[in-house]
Amino acid sequence: MSIMLKNYWPAILWAFFILIICDIKMGGVSHSPAFFEGFDKLVHCGLFFTMTVLYSGGYLRHNKKRCLSVLTAVLIILCMVAFGGAIELLQKYFFTWRSADWNDLFADTVGICMGMFSVLITSNAVKYANK
User: Fold this and answer.
1) Is the distance from CB of 18 to CB of 87 less than 8 angstroms?
2) How confident is the model over 64-74, as pLDDT tens digits?
3) What pLDDT is recorded for position 55?
4) Quick one: pLDDT at residue 93?
5) Poorest-pLDDT segment among 35-39, 76-80, 111-115
6) Which of 31, 58, 77, 100 has the fewest CB atoms below 10 angstroms from its CB?
7) SS3 28
């Protein structure tokens, strides 16, 4: 168990960070002039991009692989989208001071797909460069 966590701890910590940041009371911060309209969606995209890259990197290190299979990539994407959906459901039913916005889930999914695309491109480039 500790060997598995050794490779996945950055992704696990990042997932806890996402869970906390998406469920705390933000007050009037969203109405601050320092943030532009859509800033929240950009943050969601970046958070899930990072989590996808961290988890995929942990998977590659744990399994001693150079690149992901298509099936593994799809499974990782589905798990990440499920995590984003769970956060939105928590915001709707449990953390009532936050509002569930399905556009946030769309932004999460865009970040997840961008992260997976970057992992696939980078890992395949490394794989073919080492041939």
Assistant:
1) yes
2) 888 899 999 99
3) 96
4) 87
5) 35-39
6) 31
7) coil
Domain ranges within the chain, ordered by starting residue: 2-18+34-129
Distance of CA 2 to the CA centre of its chain: 22
Q: How many CA atoms lie within 13 A of 36 on its CB side?
A: 2
Q: How far is CA 32 from CA 42, 52, 53, 96, 100, in A?
A: 16, 29, 30, 21, 20
Contact 41, 105 (CB under 8 A): no
Distance (Å, whole) CA 85 – CA 91: 10
Residue with tokens 């953390």: 95
* Chain segment 40-62, per-residue pLDDT in tens: 889 999 999 999 999 999 999 99
Distance (Å, whole) CA 93 – CA 19: 15
